[in-house]
Amino acid sequence: MKHRHPDGAGLGFRRALVGPLDAWLEEHAALPVDFFEIAPENWLGMGGRFAADLRRYTEKFPFVAHGLSLSLGGFEPLDEAFLHRVRRFLDEHGIAIYSEHLSYCSDEGHLYDLMPIPFTEEAVVHVVERIHRTQEIIGRPLAIENVSFYAMPEGEMSELEFLLEVLRRADCQLLLDVNNIHVNAVNHGYDADEFLRAIPAERISYGHIAGHYQQEEDLIIDTHGAAVIDPVWRLQSQAFEQHGLYPVLLERDFNFPPLEELLREVGQIAQLQTAASARNSRSGTAG
Amino acid sequence: MKAFQHTQAAFAARIRDPQNQPVPAGIPQQRMAVYETLFFNNLEDLLSSNFPVLHEVLADRWLEVVHAFLIHHRCQTPLFAEIPREFMQFLHEHAESLQLPPFCEELAHYEWVEIGLAAAREDLASLRAQPGLSVEGDVMAGVPILSPLAWILSYQWPVHEISVDYQPETALAQPVWLLVWRDGNLDVQFAWINETVVWLLQQMETGRHSGQVLVERLAAHLRREDLAALQAFTRSLLEDYLHRDILLGVRT
Fold first, then answer.
1. Is residue A99 part of a domain?
2. Which of A144, B44, B60, B191 has the smallest count of CB within 10 Å of its CB?
3. Which residues of A touch B35 (CB under 8 A)?
4. Stretch A31-53: mean pLDDT, rounded?
5. Who among B28, B39, B123 is closest to A113 (CB)?
6. Considering chain B, what is the average pLDDT of its residues?
């Protein structure tokens, strides 16, 4: 299949959404979603109805792939056999972009959720090596995502320094998640605006936006199970202003509201993009 | 291992076993607890939705089993849909130390079958496209071919009847046989089958005998001489199975 690049405002593609999406498409001429994102770990190797559903949508819409289990920061050898399968999967579905978390999710076995990498020089070297190898195997640039975390193991640098160093040395792309910036700013007491300003615009491949659960005043859990809050929308708008336009998608992993509500949030991404694009062209004429 | 990797290993070890592993240096206990709860709940959610009856039957012991899974098992699959199989493997390998009711492994398998077959990679339409195979052919003259998406399963326990209120202590005198298949509409279907049908299906698995030969072998197997009745029985069974996509087709 020919590779298609995402653009505009997207939505995370989940099994639970297939029914509502089908119903929507039966009643409406078009779906106000420019692209979808899937986790290869939820679809790869699946046949039957799962494969058929996915195929129907990858034929109609551009998709990006967002990995969950690669464990870029892990200490066991990189799972190259798995990466070869991912590559075939991306090729089969015409997916141009593969992203993964700047994190680790395994020890000698998989733990299926994200743990924070200690921010050290040795860890930078280790992760950069693994990103290089990943890019070689998948034959595409990898976008790494800034992740949310709740505890910071002892390290030698800040999250921002670590992220910038990995991006520079790995020469890879960034999946920018503004919700995670907000979550970490609250959880670890740093300035979200400052973090966002320091992001190298030219590395941004696409973005995530999501809701979360505020458990305590200084603790947010990144659940992807609620509506996006205003401070995060403001950060997204700021991101477009500072770094230019890029495709962004809404992540919603459980607690699904009616599809209409998700589409409203996807529409809100599109509005921010339109507003930013109008601002950019105005400043373009003025300059 | 590098220094940061020791930190990583200690972090993961604490998530797996908060009762026995220390909180890694420099991390507040409450923040570590966020990870412990998140990871455990993730896994528990996934397993209880995949094994609802087992979850209910084990009741108070369920959480202990999930804990043991996290502590003792090292999942090798990166794929989320394969986690249930890792759990089944764990139940098998730790049957002795877990001391669960003896039907648990089979119950878990029975609960996994539907999703396992729903997600199987084989594709009926492309399997049927092979030359020499027809869905129109005569089932007695040609060789009936079983679909790879039809699984013949046997259980020593009445897995379909087990519930909170019915937990047998002894295995069945005779195993029960289950035929599970995925049809052309991609739906998974179940049928309990008797020993005669099982015997026929096992003969068909060789992919060599025509329907007519199957009747002759069946007659010898059952020591019966009323060929006409066996023939009528076999023909109607095979035609029904072809119609329901249990057979891929007839090789002529």
1. yes
2. B60
3. 115, 150-151
4. 97
5. B39
6. 96
pLDDT in tens, A165-222: 999 999 999 999 999 999 999 999 999 999 999 999 999 999 999 999 999 999 999 9
CA distances from A14 to A36, A37, A233, B16, B23 (A): 10, 9, 23, 28, 35
Is residue A1 a part of any domain in this protein? no
Q: What is the pLDDT of residue A281?
A: 79
Which of B31, B75, B77 is closest, CB to CB, to A150? Answer: B31
Q: For the domain that residue A105 is a member of, what is the CATH number?
A: 3.20.20.150
As for the ipTM of the complex, it is 0.95
Which residues in chain A touch residue B49, judged by CB atoms under 8 angstroms apart? none
Q: Which of B17, B29, B45, B80 to mutate to test the interface with A (most CBs of A within 10 A)?
A: B80
Q: Helix H segments across A73-202?
A: 80-92, 121-138, 159-170, 178-188, 192-197
Total residue length of chain A: 287
Question: For residues A157 and B11, is the Cβ–Cβ distance under 8 A?
Answer: no
The tokens for B152 are: 């013949």
Residue B7 to residue A118, Cβ atoms within 8 A: yes
Angle between helices A230-243 and A259-286 (to 10 degrees): 30
Poorest-confidence range of A29-33, A85-89, B85-89?
A29-33
Could you tell me if residue A105 is inside a domain?
A: yes
In this structure, what token pair is assigned to residue A183? 């979550």
Rounded CA-CA distance B161/B177 in Å is 14
Amino acid of residue A174: L
Which pair of tokens denotes residue A175? 């999946």
Q: Is residue A193 part of a domain?
A: yes
Q: A46 to chain B nearest CA, in Å?
A: 5
Helix (H) or strand (E) holding A271: helix A259-286
Query: Which domain range does residue A152 map to?
Result: 9-286
Q: Domains of chain B (ranges plus CATH)?
A: 1-100 (no CATH), 123-252 (3.90.930.50)
